[in-house]
Amino acid sequence: MTGFVLNANIYDFGADAGAWRAPGTHALDNLTESFWRGVARTAEDGGLDGIFLADSPGLSANPAIRPGRMVEPLSTLAVVLSETTRLGVIATVSTSANDPVELAERLLEYNLLSRGRFGWNVVTGVPQLSLQDFNLSEAPERADRYARATEFLDVYQAYVAAVRTGQGLSYEGALFNYALDAGAIRSGGRVASFAREITPLIVQAGGSEQGRRLAAGSADAVFAAETVFEVARRNRLELHSMAREAGRPAPVVLPGVHLVIGSTDEEAEARFQLVNQLGPKDYVLRRFASLLDVDPARLDLEAPASNLEQIAGSTERGSAGFRKSITVYGVANSLTIGQLVRHFSGFGHQFFVGTPERFADVVEQWYRGGAADGFNLLFDANPIGLREFVDHVVPVLRRRGLVSAEPSHVPFARRLKEIAR
Amino acid sequence: MSTRTILDLSGDLLEALTETLAQGGERAAELGRALDRLPVAAFAVGFGTPEHQVRDRSIFAGFLLAATRSSKVIIRADVARQHPINLARTVSTLSALHGKRIGLGASEGTEVHGWFAPPTPGARPSAAGYLRLVSALWDSWPLDAIAGDTEAGRYVDAHRIVRVSEPAYPGIGGPLTLPTDQTEKPPLVLLWEEGDRDDDGSGVDLLLTASGSDVRSGARIAYSAGDVGLVLGLSDLASLTTWTPSPQAGTAEVPTTIRAALGLGRSGRVARTEHAVFLDTGNAAQV
Fold it and tell me: What Cα–Cα distance (Å) separates residue B10 from each residue in A187, B47, B128, B236?
């Protein structure tokens, strides 16, 4: 068994906006049980560690442009767990769209029913279209979102402690107040006894300074967005240092990689072009501009990427982590804005198009070089990208001693907490 | 006389079922097969739970549905604590993934003033109103709005994705993140006690009223409507897996969907007003 971790981020049809039109894909695939059972079986048999579902509580994009993140993660991942015996799952749930005690009850029940194979990816956002649904008159500032998330997690941890000890919950904070005696705690019996053995993995993905502080103070694992090796290595060291200062184990750091695999570089590039060109016209450019809060018409594609820092707008909108990682990549590699838009490719994670061997080189450098404990993989199209990965990349990673021939049967949440150090 | 039985799973029985499902593998599969064989229209989850212990049962339902092939499940909503958007989304997801085998229920007269619904002049939240809101949210994205035209690149008719409104919860309107089949919505079930009817129950599929007259096997049909009866009080796995219906009950053929199992016809729209949210698909902010 190695300490290396590979999770698949199944972004419904895939990370590419054109993925729903990829050959062999049907528009309702992601709404079927068989799709998720197939994904689960492929991932477990293929030696991956977990399946991750990103999410927001409402529509964050027009599905006519890019369908995805439709199904509710906890419900969907129950199918994945039912199909498998070893594979872990990580579900995204927003602290801005739930009550902390009510959510804690659900997550501890999930913890039991998954037999310790469950992680909660803590996100803070509510999409613009859903603000009113969640009592918000306007989008909260990042600082306010993270203040709520920090207190939300404090309540969650206090509730878990109350369940584990069989005592009541007393919490007084700026946003939440609870005074529950032991009889009012609704998670009892086997849920409570199992929570004394294993609790859900806490995962965090924020790349802003507030997000990093939240991660260091509470997360067992971090989904990172760094795209440059040296920056990623430094980020991991800093997260470890911040966690230790907070008296916590250093979290497992898992950068995202958006990848397209082919048996040759030319084949991979052809595949990228095939799926990418199925997306809406100018979609990637408009999304790139949206991330930087800039008018697409102001982007000179021939200009150096270093110019972006001068023209970019507010950092309050969109992901600070993606924005930072993508601009750093452009500068570090002396790209033009046009070249960077292609690298961005609609997402913002490290983007790889090429052969299994070349990808294994990247993996090996980042893992052995201290920039990552593993990766969170986003395939251009699902399930074909996942199948190709386990068929062609995992064997290479096994030969290099990164992926074990005999996968671990330690429950996913416990295993990742043990890797955290 | 009830011929379509809904068996409630609560208390120690629910605990035992959770424990068995948590074991996964063959134990969970064996339980699933046993439940699929039972001659019942559906299982209810949490209706026998005391009000101060009511909590969301969608997690349990997700694992139960994944372990069964034909069993139908009606979960009791935690109407005071679970945000209707989240629950509507969850139940729609489970319905899509599991062949329309899930329904949603609540008890009228229970506490409904949740964190998600601040006091609003003129708004009178109720359990029935909560269920109606969930159903209206299922109208926010009709399944048949999906075009799925891979050649033309037209995934959905976005103008049919709408924000809806329900007077009892004026601030909540969606849209949800996924489409729902308008003709096969998860059925809504409401339990009514005598004297606490502050809502006409419109939009609800089954209004079950207290009966409590038919006692057998240590369980009782506590609520009924027409030929549908809800049995409360089963206490352990043995009483569940050996449960037998009354002689009048006859369900030789297992219906595919929960609406058919409960003798319900097609569902329809309940949203009273709505407006499209994607009017300008070229707007970058909507990307």
Answer: 14, 7, 22, 10
Q: Partners of A120 in the beta sheet?
A: A91, A202
Distance CA B259, CA B280 (A): 37
So what's the pLDDT on residue B286? Answer: 45
Residue count of chain B: 287
3-state SS, one letter per residue, for B206-263: EEEEEEEEEEECCEEEEEEECCEEEEECCCCHHHHHCCCCCCCCCCCCCCCCHHHHCC
A149, A47, A131: which is closest to A94 by C-alpha? Answer: A149
Kindly calculate the radius of gyration of chain B based on its CA atoms and give it in whole angstroms: 19
Residue corresponding to tokens 């002049």: B121
- Find chain B residues with C-beta within 8 A of A276's C-beta: none
Between the alpha carbon of residue A201 and those of residues A84, A219, A220, A249, A344, the distances in Å are 18, 8, 6, 13, 29
CB contact under 8 A, B63 and A81: yes
* B19 CA: distance to closest CA in chain A (Å): 7
Q: So what CATH class is A5-257+362-420? A: alpha beta
Task: Enter the ipTM.
Answer: 0.96
B177 closest CA partner among A358, A127, A157, A69: A69
Beta carbons of B116 and B134 less than 8 angstroms apart: no
Least Cα separation, residue B248 to chain A (angstroms): 35
Pairwise CB contact (< 8 Å): B90 & A75: yes
- Is residue B287 over pLDDT 80? no
Interchain proximity B150–A36, CB inside 8 Å: no
Total CB pairs under 8 A between chain A and B? 189
CA angle, residues A154, B59, B166, in degrees to nearest 5: 90
Cα A290 from chain centroid (whole Å): 20
- B116: nearest CB among A115, A135, A191: A135
DSSP 8-class letter at B130 = H
The DSSP annotation for A187-229 comes to --HHHHHHHTT---EEEE---SHHHHHHHHHH-SEEEE---SH
What is the least distance, in Å, from the CA of A418 to any CA of chain B? 22
Considering only residues A318 and B229, tell me which one the structure prediction assigns the higher pLDDT: B229
**CATH domain B4-284 topology:** TIM Barrel (3.20.20)
State the average pLDDT over residues A259-280.
95
Helix axes A142-165, A100-113, angle to 10 degrees: 60
| Residue A87, SS3 per DSSP | coil
A384 closest CA partner among A6, A7, A21, A4: A21
Write out chain A residues lying below 8 Å of B146, CB-based: 27-28
Is a pLDDT exceeding 70 seen at residue A377?
yes
Pairing type for strands B102-107 and B146-149 reads unpaired
DSSP state of B39: -
Q: Chain B: residue nearest A62 by CA? A: B286
In whole angstroms, give the CA distance from residue A29 to residue A22: 12
Decide: B76 and B54 in contact? Cβ < 8 Å.
Answer: yes
Q: Hey, are the CB atoms on B22 and A194 less than 8 Å from each other? A: yes
Within a 13 Å sphere around the CA of A153, how many CA atoms are in the beta-carbon half?
Answer: 26
Q: Are B270 and B203 in contact, with CB atoms under 8 Å apart?
A: yes
CA of A176: which chain B residue's CA is closest? B115
Nearest-CA distance A351 → chain B (Å): 20
Sequence ranges of the domains in chain A: 5-257+362-420
Do the beta carbons of residue A182 and residue A161 sit within 8 Å?
A: no
* Per-residue pLDDT, A319: 72
pLDDT of residue A310: 84
Q: How far is CA A134 from the centre of its chain?
A: 23
